[in-house]
Amino acid sequence: MRIDVITIFPEYLEPLNVSLLGKARARGLLDVRLHDLRGWTHDRHHTVDDTPYGGGPGMVMKPDPWGEALDALLAGERPAADPVVVVPTPSGRPFTQELAVELSRAPWLVFTPARYEGIDRRVIEEYGARLDVREVSIGDYVLAGGEAPVLVMVEAVARLLPGVLGNAESHRDDSFAPGAMAALLEGPVYTKPPEWRGHGVPEVLISGHHGRIARWRRDEALRRTTLNRPDLIESCDPEAFDKHDRETLAALGWRQGADGRFWRPPDGVEE
């Protein structure tokens, strides 16, 4: 996969050289190219922003540098397929594991992390008319710029590429993994030693009984999900839960509505 990132802070993306991503780049599994947006400016101050039309606080990134940068990438040495252009923005579609899987199937991704109040809307409209442009948010909060979201998304996507993880099965049980029986958070994990500072490992994990271990992990995933992300339980297709799941959820205070979906009465409120 080829990934291009256009940014005014290429140094922010240095983490792409370390750990799994760095190894993937060294092995030729991932071709990451960083581009300084200021290289497509033509004034002595390398200006990339200006005041917004209509007034208001902050500055807006100018369309000319972005247009020249994207045109240069599209006209240069490139994969045969057009890129998917990913625009990090708090107003975009939520970034999910499902979207990470979808993006991992693209041969070429171009990320356009913005600063200030964002990129002049005409850039999105211009390239959205002829390319697959995705506006994507990593969460309901605002950062100083889009480089941190790029790091998040590139790592989430790249680890799904064949050969990047040492164990090809590692991501199958990830939290939110598509195709699972239900979109549950991953449960707790343990390793050696069997006792640490008075804390032991759950007996079932050292029992050697694979069926019991699988059931325990499923139950713990249900418990963690009901605690940290109850919305996932509420939105899940009830057919995703087997009989034991339903019993576990009932023991945790969940009920099934007329449509079969699970819901939990507020604390202190009787049905």
UniProtKB/TrEMBL annotation:
Domain of life according to the entry: Bacteria
Annotated GO MF terms: tRNA (guanine(37)-N1)-methyltransferase activity
GO terms, biological process: tRNA N1-guanine methylation
Pfam families: tRNA_m1G_MT
Cellular compartments per GO CC: cytosol
Domain tRNA methyltransferase TRMD/TRM10-type: 1-234
Presence of keyword Methyltransferase: yes
Keywords tagged on the record: Cytoplasm, Methyltransferase, S-adenosyl-L-methionine, Transferase, tRNA processing
Catalytic activity line of the entry: guanosine(37) in tRNA + S-adenosyl-L-methionine = N(1)-methylguanosine(37) in tRNA + S-adenosyl-L-homocysteine + H(+)
Location(s), subcellular: Cytoplasm
Enzyme class: transferase
Keyword Acetylation included in the entry's annotation: no
Principal subcellular localisation of the protein: cytoplasm
Family annotation (InterPro entries): Alpha/beta_knot_MTases (IPR029028), tRNA_m1G_MeTrfase_C_sf (IPR023148), tRNA_m1G_MeTrfase_TrmD (IPR002649), tRNA_m1G_MTases_N (IPR029026), tRNA_MeTrfase_TRMD/TRM10 (IPR016009)
Enzyme Commission number(s) from the entry: 2.1.1.228
Residues the record lists as binding S-adenosyl-L-methionine: 138-143
Protein family membership: Belongs to the RNA methyltransferase TrmD family.
Annotated function: Specifically methylates guanosine-37 in various tRNAs.
Assembly mode: Homodimer.
Protein name: tRNA (guanine-N(1)-)-methyltransferase
Lineage: Bacteria, Bacillati, Actinomycetota, Actinomycetes, Kitasatosporales
Gene, per the UniProt record: trmD
